[in-house]
Amino acid sequence: MKRKIWIDGEFVEWNDASVHILSHSHQRGSLIFGFIPIFENENGTFIFRVDKHIERLLKSCLMAGIPIDYMENELIDAVFDTVKENPGSKFIKISVYIASIEIDVVPQDPFTKVAIAAYDPQKDIIKKNSQPFHSSKQLSVWIEKERHQRRQDIIEPQIKIAANYTSPMMAKWKARKNGYDEIILTDSEDYVTEAPTSNVFIVNQGGVLRTAHEDEVLHGITRMSIIEIAEDEGIEMNIGRIPRRELEEAKEVFITSSSHLVYPVNSLDGKPVGNGKAGKTTMILKNRLLRVTEGKDNKFNKWLCPV
Ligand SMILES: Cc1ncc(COP(=O)(O)O)c(C=O)c1O
């Protein structure tokens, strides 16, 4: 499949969609992005909560002071055009970036471009790379103790900007070398925040579903969806600060993201979570979200936007 990437209204061949090595977004990490899942089911092809994803992208630009010339509806239309142009895609990556060649941290030419790619990560990227991809069915997680979560007074965790991923990358890379699949970060006061590219939920000893407050984390669209599903299922939930101890003693832990939806955590720091298998609440939420993606959930089918 020859993929085409939408760049400012034109479709460009996959291999030609490049930026200069000295571009500001590349050198300073000023690229804002979004990653949106596409689901195929018996009723057709659907983009998941595209409005919420684009809203978050625009909010990230605003918070970071990165200018963008597009309106929400123009971006949504462009996302749909890109998915139609690239059949069989499973995800959309939308990037807002300063493509100009710059010398200062403050760009002389602060104009952004927008690129939208729709692809199948397995076929279009993973299989084409030289080294094997790390993947795991049993998720072993390291609770990171040295490097803390993104901080409000450095770069707000709500901004989905490339620069925000450097610190978790360093911590996760180290954990990988030590045999773990994933990490969970805490804030500087040792309260649980999120994983590098996922939000974290626990079921605590009292059976209450918990996740960090939205001041502390990226506003994950999957997190938002799981909260709505949990409310609908009548699951007792408490959103707020989670001391690290509560995570370590949790009966169930799972992480949520557009790439894996609900991903149960089997062990923390080498010790099993519960009996080491996905717990009851985790499976209720995981299966319900899966039903939504299959177009089999009357209440939340509205989250699927037909292509
Ligand atoms: C820091 C961070 N937290 C959470 C998430 C999960 O967000 P979503 O559910 O919208 O994919 C992501 C996604 O990339 C992320 O980068």
Describe the structure.
- The protein is of the alpha+beta class and 307 residues long.
- It folds into two domains: 125 residues, Aminotransferase class 4, branched-chain amino acid transferase, N-terminal domain (D-amino Acid Aminotransferase, Chain A, domain 1, 2-Layer Sandwich); 155 residues, Alpha-Beta Barrel (D-amino Acid Aminotransferase, Chain A, domain 2), CATH 3.20.10.
- The protein contains eight helices and 16 strands.
- Strands 7, 8, 9, 10, 11, 12, 13, 14 and 15 form a nine-stranded mixed β-sheet that branches.
- A hairpin with a 3-residue loop joins strand 13 and strand 14.
- Helix 2 crosses helix 3.
- The longest helix has 15 residues.
- It is globular.
- Bound molecules: pyridoxal-5'-phosphate.
End-to-end distance: 19 Å
CATH topology of the largest domain: D-amino Acid Aminotransferase, Chain A, domain 2
- Secondary structure class reads alpha+beta
Integer count of domains: 2
Query: Helical region count?
Result: 8
As a percent range, the share of helical residues equals 25-40%
List the helices and strands in order. EEHEEHHEEHEHEEEEHEHEEEHE
Biggest pleated-sheet summary: 9 strands, mixed
CATH superfamily of the largest domain: D-amino Acid Aminotransferase, subunit A, domain 2
The amount of beta strand, in percent, is 25-35%
- Tell me which ligands are bound: pyridoxal-5'-phosphate
